[in-house]
């Protein structure tokens, strides 16, 4: 398959959309025909992993193709300076028309506003669900309506106005981010009981202190703003937890419904214009999200539900329909992949890998044998997840909780004794029991500790001073 022209690029990104709430990933709680259609027309990535499961750092990774330690975007309060090269600035320099609509969340003002875009309209910080304000090059504008619909409609209007030059448009949604405010048209959806995940009653007995320390339990930490109504007074603690889960999931899935309608509108437009086949259409989220797994909401941890993002991509001119892959890919890879499809050289400092061979070749070279992750926002005042980094391979996952904010913005001032966790994902897919101290895994532990050290050297990251230097290291 070959394309006669440089492809248009339509990149839809959502905030906190778990793979478990997408039909093509096997959702048992909702349907998403718009997103599923992209997967059916192209490739579904089953092991798409983020390098830092937090909104601001992840968005920086998508744009710059670099890890958090390279971009210096490590927490929600460290913003992207606009002197960084991004796939947008590279596309713009190569003659692409470029636009951005929706959630930026990378800072505002002369040093942080979007650059490389012919047009942009972005939400301040988290933005609002109803009648939201947008920042534009001409100043702030408040628009009437529902934020997901507004972002989609303005992106469509911009796409309609483009000429023959190839374009790239980022349609980056706020939804389904907390506090999960759905459009009234979806108020009657998901009124039947939503099944509880198998680990909803997890007591964290097989893990270390960090899982116990986090304040993300649905039973305990959803607020009045999240729930929007009081639980029935006659419910006991366990029953109230289930009631809270139902309320949370109802509104979360209703927000997803509006996103999926927007995705359908975008792909319908491309089909109507005869451009779907020569457009790279991509849907992703900035990380995963807990939908009651381990009793939690939110993200942050390196556990699978948080680490794994949904990622589907279609480009019928070059990518065969109906594919899926379990290759270890990362949000850091997206920038180079899009530039490769566009025939544009990637800036020298990008640290990801192009996925074009994986998407187009019959027998592609493996992308990587291990994925590196680092979460910096230690013990923040709302969630209290410890800072940690780790490595994930096909079967195993090693995590080192160094438990120190290192003075970074939005981190707690208290440090804690470090801890390790090791999981055998083949035998323990829900990550319920760490085997770090199990003698049967001594060789695996040693191998992964060295792999983690080597990855940090390869990527230019610095191990925390508390991490022991592994035995047998060669550099």
UniProtKB/TrEMBL annotation:
N-sulphoglucosamine sulphohydrolase C-terminal domain location is: 292-457
Which Gene3D superfamilies does UniProt cross-reference here? Alkaline Phosphatase, subunit A
UniProt keyword terms in alphabetical order: Hydrolase
What is the protein's species of origin?
Microbacterium azadirachtae
Superkingdom to which the source organism belongs: Bacteria
Matching CDD domains: G6S_like (cd16031)
Family, as annotated: Belongs to the sulfatase family.
Name of the molecule in the record: Arylsulfatase
Q: Return the PROSITE patterns for the record.
A: SULFATASE_1
EC number(s) given by UniProt: 3.1.6.1
Q: Which GO terms describe its molecular function?
A: arylsulfatase activity
Q: Which InterPro entries does this UniProt record tie to the protein?
A: Alkaline_phosphatase_core_sf, SGSH_C, Sulfatase_CS
